[in-house]
Amino acid sequence: MPEFKKKLDDMVPSEIVRSLDEYVVGQDEAKRTIAIAIRNRVRRKRLPEEVRDEVTPKNILMIGPTGVGKTEIARRIAKLANAPFIKVEATKYTEVGYVGRDVESMVRDLAAASISMVREEMAGQKEEEVEHRVEERLLDLLLPTLPKDSSTEIAAADTREKFRNMLRSGVFEEKEVEMPVDMKTHLGFEVMGSGGSMEEIQQALNSLGSMFSSSGRQKTRKLTVKRAREILHEEEMDKVIDPDKAVDEAIERAEEMGIIFIDEIDKVASRNSNSNSDVSREGVQRDILPIVEGTKVSTKWGVVDTTNILFIAAGAFSFAKPSDLIPELQGRFPLRVELKDLTGEDFYRILTEPQNAITKQYKALLSTEGVEVTFTDEALHEIAQIAHDVNQSNDNIGARRLYTVMEKLLEELAFSADELSGQKVDITKDYVRKRLSDIVEDQDLSKYIL
Ligand SMILES: Nc1ncnc2c1ncn2[C@@H]1O[C@H](COP(=O)(O)OP(=O)(O)OP(=O)(O)O)[C@@H](O)[C@H]1O
Ligand SMILES: [Mg+2]
Fold first, then answer.
1. Is residue 2 one of the residues assigned to a domain?
2. Which residue's CA is the closest to the ligand 1 atom numbered 26?
């Protein structure tokens, strides 16, 4: 791991590929294409303006069977990206009532992502100042305001420093304090969680805001110090950031460096539009078209021009073909990359290599119960082989098969882990065979279980 995260803008293609390698096994061609596309945007930014306007990004279409890493690549790019990035599912726009209206929301979401990214960055530069202010405000909440005559002043300052040390050591974390909370900004996110787009949440918040506005938007609440700190941190962050500068920077970044990943594009592809749902799917394609082509979308922060946004679309295309997309849309995705079916050897690597590899996850989970699990190399090969075989004999669901196989393999262990606390468990080839071979051999059974 690099010591500090390099910004995506500063990464050359080989570095982008290498960081993708930490999570995604194989699929080199797709990684290369995306890395080049991302790098080209940085190159473009360095061109003189007359030339720059001529160079628009080449959008990418990723094609590959289910469960081979399309979405995973997107997810990893998102984590790397200090470029504004969002991922949407094309199917989302086919829901009744959404057609035609809401496709532009992807651009608004991108702008929102850009805004919060720029805000974080700007606040990061003033992190010390923000933390200091938050600490002072927490101390104000914790300390009863002492009368300010000169005899008590020194004692008060003394107490404050004592409290400061205690606060820093963490003893107050669960203590409750009372503070006024702005209902509009802080209530909504708790209630609504992460469902819905940022735009939808924002709309809901606005209506919540008006709901409360008659009774005043601030309400005194009892909160733990821990929670209060989070809220105060937000509030202080707002104060140190110049909002106009943040918005200008964010809009420019969304326009010049933004990446929109449209997943499940194949689900809106279909040629012969004779049923209702086909019409709606084709409608989605027609709606996406101008956005990919370059249009101006108004957001609450201002107008975003989509001409230079990079679009990466992905789909399994197991039923529909890329040629089933409407021709205009096909033409907007000139770069095609095909992701390959994964081999047994790939499966073996997926089990062990990625930073978040599935065997690492199970080990970590079971270690919380005091059980130390190890997998022998032979066992891992056996698991990979079984997953591969089941994919051949039943539906091919790609690497997702590893999850069902592992789940079944470790079911008993997971169930009785508490009784095994303090022990070491070796998963050997025999163990794998014993747990799984009956199921694998029985076709009908494996259809249900694996
Ligand atoms: N090449 C790979 N390397 C590492 N993990 C992978 C790879 N391919 C798939 N996986 C794992 O398998 C799961 C499914 O992969 P992913 O979501 O990328 O599938 P997909 O290609 O988008 O399929 P679909 O077309 O069904 O959406 C993920 O949890 C992912 O971590
Ligand atoms: Mg996917």
1. no
2. 66
**Domain, as residue range, for 173:** 127-240
CATH assignment at residue 406: 1.10.8.60
Radius of gyration of the chain (CA): 27
Atom of ligand 1 at shortest distance to CA of 315?
25
| In contact, 401 and 450? CB cutoff 8 Å | yes
Residue nearest to atom 1 of ligand 1 (CA): 25
Query: Which of 193, 208, 240 represents a domain boundary (last residue)?
Result: 240
| Range 138-154 burial, b when 16+ CB lie within 10 A, else e | bbebbeeeeeeeeeeee
For residue 261, how far is its CA from the centre of ligand 2 (angstroms)?
A: 11
Alpha helical stretches, state H, 264-303: 276-293
CA 260 – ligand 2 centroid, Å: 15
pLDDT, tens digit only, all 450 positions of the chain: 333 345 666 788 999 999 999 999 999 999 999 999 888 888 888 899 888 888 888 899 999 999 999 989 988 887 776 789 999 998 888 765 554 458 899 999 999 999 998 988 888 888 888 999 999 999 998 887 555 555 667 777 888 888 999 999 988 888 888 888 876 554 433 333 334 455 555 555 554 444 444 445 678 888 899 999 999 988 888 888 888 999 999 999 999 889 999 999 998 887 655 566 666 778 888 889 999 999 999 999 999 999 999 999 999 998 888 888 989 999 999 999 999 999 999 999 999 999 889 999 999 999 998 999 999 999 999 999 999 998 998 889 999 999 999 999 998 888 988 888 888 999 999 999 988 887 777 767 777 777
Q: Which residue has the CA at smallest separation from atom 14 of ligand 1?
A: 67
For the CA of 68, the closest atom of ligand 1 is 8
As a whole number of angstroms, the distance between CA 365 and CA 361 comes to 6
* Pocket of ligand 1 from Cβ distances under 6 Å: 24-27, 64, 66-72, 316, 350, 354, 398-400
Report in angstroms the alpha-carbon separations of 196 from 12, 122, 255, 283, 351. Answer: 34, 26, 23, 22, 32
